[in-house]
Specification:
Blueprint lengths: L7 H16 L2 H23 L7 H17 L6 H17 L8 H29 L6 H23 L1
Length: about 160
């Protein structure tokens, strides 16, 4: 269940999506979490069916950059766009989470744990963001968005430089 929290690109995108989902009304945040869960399930299903190597980690970092910039600039995101980004992030996270076990039973358990852990982490981050969104007129969330943007851009630069 901790797999989404053990990979830096996963953590960055979860925080970025949480910053977007937590600033919206409760039903919109729930739609973002649901779309993310659907995307993770689709990505994990693709992994289970034998999809090869994908640039999913780069997609995660690019999406985290988009979410971070949106939060840093305090932009209002239309719900269809936010749900689409959450769906893409979920698919990419699922594709970037191959099981580390050869045994089928353990692999299935790891995939289910990844789905549950990712959903729980995103929901908790979004709830935390919604709780602190009014402090200092959202300045804390804007600072967090700028840090997420910086981290994601630096990680992409290091990945592409190699």
């Amino acid at each position: 269940m901790l797999h989404p929290l053990s990979t830096p690109s996963h953590v960055v995108v979860l925080i970025g999506l949480g910053l977007i989902g937590g600033r919206m009304v409760l039903s919109a945040g729930a739609a973002i979490v649901a779309a993310f869960g659907l995307g993770v399930a689709a990505g994990l299903g693709a992994i289970a069916s034998g999809v090869g190597e994908t640039p999913a980690s780069d997609v995660l970092l690019a999406a985290a950059t988009l979410c971070g910039v949106t939060a840093a600039l305090n932009l209002t995101v239309p719900l269809p766009l936010a749900v689409t980004v959450a769906l893409i992030c979920g698919i990419a996270l699922g594709l970037d989470s191959p099981p580390e076990s050869i045994l089928l039973r353990e692999a299935v358990a790891m995939l289910i744990g990844t789905l549950c852990g990712g959903l729980a982490a995103l929901a908790m981050i979004a709830f935390f963001v919604s709780t602190i969104a009014r402090l200092w007129h959202g300045l804390l969330l804007r600072v967090a968005g700028s840090w997420i943007t910086a981290i994601a851009i630096l990680a992409l630069a290091l990945r592409w430089a190699a």
